[in-house]
Design brief:
This protein is an alpha/beta fold. It contains eight helices and five strands. The protein is elongated. The two termini are 33 Å apart.
């Protein structure tokens, strides 16, 4: 499932959006009230969906999509004048006021887009990645998303497939390498 980050300057808007998402079965990764919090959350989740309830002071949604566009999808829920300021066509927009149904419909669409973007692992690759995550979770006492991030980051930093790095971890845990 895509990691969802909710951001907005207004606490009530963040809370309402968070409740709507959780009630609809979407787990939240983080809630953010500032640009700094949002950028840290996006870095921590690696990829996912950012739902912005209005604009954040000091941050235009265009800047975020320019900086992180390959890793995230953005849903901006704001007044029409704020939506009109966005230049990027990659930002999905909903004018305020809007209904919970429209928000959830937009989130469902963005989750599908996110899933289509992810590489698909099949068969043995999937099994080896899962085994490596379990090993990392045990050895480092970390969560599954953290283990996934460790695998993903090392593989990206070293220009290799995640399944190949996972195979190394599994082999070394068995004392083979």
């Amino acid at each position: 499932m895509a990691r969802i980050v909710v951001a907005g300057a207004a606490e009530t808007a963040r809370e309402q959006l968070s409740r709507l998402l959780v009630y609809s079965g979407y787990p939240l990764f983080r809630c953010c009230a500032s640009e700094g919090e949002l950028r840290r959350a996006v870095d921590a989740c690696e990829d996912g969906i950012v739902i912005m309830a209005g604009a954040l002071p000091g941050l235009r949604p265009d800047e975020l999509i320019w900086d992180c566009g390959q890793r995230i999808e953005i849903l901006l829920i704001a007044k029409p004048e704020v939506l009109n300021e966005c230049e990027s066509e990659k930002i999905f927009r909903l004018p305020m006021p809007t209904s919970g149904q429209k928000v959830i419909g937009a989130v469902e669409m963005l989750v599908q887009l996110h899933q289509m973007r992810l590489p698909k692992r099949e068969g043995q690759d999937r099994e080896i990645v899962e085994q490596a995550k379990e090993i990392l979770m045990r050895q480092k006492r970390i969560t599954e998303p953290e283990a996934h991030r460790v695998l993903q980051k090392f593989a990206m930093d070293h220009g290799m497939k995640m399944a190949d790095y996972a195979a190394r971890i599994v082999a070394s845990s068995r004392g083979v390498e």
